Amino acid sequence: MLQPSDKALVPFVSVDDMMKLVHHIGIEPMLKGIADYIEADFRRWELFDKTPRIASHSQEGVIELMPTSDGEVYGFKYVNGHPKNTKEGLQTVTAFGLLADVNTGYPVLLTEMTVLTALRTAATSAMVAKYLAPKGSTTMAMIGNGAQSEFQSLAMKAICGIDSVRLYDIDSAATDKAARNLAGMGLNVVKCSTAEESMEGAQIITTCTADKQCATILTDNMIGSGVHINAIGGDCPGKTELAPAILHRSDIFVEYPEQTRIEGEIQQMEDDHPVTEMWEVISGKQAGRTNPEQITLFDSVGFAIEDFSALRYVRDNIKGTELFIDLDLLADPDDPRDLFGMVQRASSEA
Ligand SMILES: NC(=O)c1ccc[n+]([C@@H]2O[C@H](COP(=O)([O-])OP(=O)(O)OC[C@H]3O[C@@H](n4cnc5c(N)ncnc54)[C@H](O)[C@@H]3O)[C@@H](O)[C@H]2O)c1
To answer: What is the mean pLDDT of the chain?
Structure first.
């Protein structure tokens, strides 16, 4: 067999290697590390190429491409969202992604991103809550106890210092699973049988449900003053979690308005409904929480720059480890213009 040259090889991080990386670094330090990379990239927001993600909708779900570039490095993620999948033994969300060198266009990293998306979504939520949640928040209601939920809980612990999480899901098996997984991880975990019960004493309310419709996970009367809502699950046209009345009472913070107005909770509002961009809060250009009575809402949909940051984090942290393999991904003929000759010569090797 012909051996590929170095130029043909691209580091590839499999799911197995990603899980090993999580254990090698530790889940909470990794969540913090990714949050730091995301925060750093939000500070240089204006540098990036930005576009709403390219979505291909179908009856049962969506497949999306999420590209961005800072001028030196280009990244994209492939991700799906299929709420019915779990009933068939498949996940709602799976993903993989790539970084490339803008100068040559050559890929420099290919990686699984299903685990990495859960880490980056949680890291983003907690990084944002650091700016918006009431000071000294200790308790989070975690509504929707599926794949993302433990990551969300641990990121809020590691980055915002919460010590209690109150779990609720319409499927109590999901709540049991999340409680089991979080046992012994330094959080006081309470299983609740209604959404209202999960919100008792909570300063942070995370909604992370999956349903391919405009659901009403939170109604207006459930929300008192002085809370931070971290709304994760409303992230597609026709797929929301909050009653519009809550949006009228909240100060709404978003990633990239052009995408959030299509996909987020604010798709239920007028096109010019006021929102604040998180990068401006982080850069000190706009205020975050200004008083303890305020209801802050992070209308999260997930933006390409967060994936770019997570990919950068992985590229930097696999250096010097064996947590990747070199994939023979790029054709590398001896004469760059003799691609055909390279293919022809391979016949004698077949
Ligand atoms: N904003 C982002 O950046 C981002 C990133 C990843 C995923 N998501 C979204 O987050 C959501 C959760 O993703 P996941 O991978 O954890 O999905 P999942 O299917 O693993 O879990 C969803 C959970 O929600 C529960 N649920 C559904 N309806 C409910 C209701 N009315 N009340 C309480 N619980 C309910 C389900 O029983 C399930 O346990 C999805 O909608 C996904 O698209 C958003």
So the answer is: 96
What is the per-residue DSSP string for 132-147?
A: HSPTT--EEEEE--ST
**How is residue 321 written in tokens?**
């480890």
- 272 is known as an active-site residue: no
Residue nearest to atom 38 of ligand 1 (CA): 146
Ligand 1 mean position, distance from CA 187 (Å)? 21
> Could you tell me if 150 and 262 lie in one domain?
yes
For the CA of 146, the closest atom of ligand 1 is: 21
Domain residues for 225? 123-303
Identified catalytic residue from 235, 316, 332, 334: 235
pTM of the model: 0.97
Residue 10 has which token pair?
Answer: 């691209």
CATH number of domain containing 91: 3.30.1780.10
- Which residues' Cβ are closer than 6 Å to ligand 1? 81, 86, 92-93, 117, 121, 143-148, 169-171, 174, 208-211, 215, 217, 232-233, 235, 300-302
pLDDT one-digit tens code per residue, 204-255: 999 999 987 889 999 999 999 999 999 999 999 999 999 999 999 999 999 9
Domain holding 127: CATH number?
A: 3.40.50.720
60 & 132 share domain: no
Residues 299 and 156 in one domain: yes
Cα–ligand 1 centroid distance for 131 (angstroms)? 24
Q: Given strand 188-191, what is the order of strands in its sheet?
A: 188-191, 164-168, 139-143, 204-207, 228-231, 296-299, 251-254, 276-277
Q: What proportions of the chain, in percent to the nearest 5, are helix, strand and coil?
A: 40, 25, 35
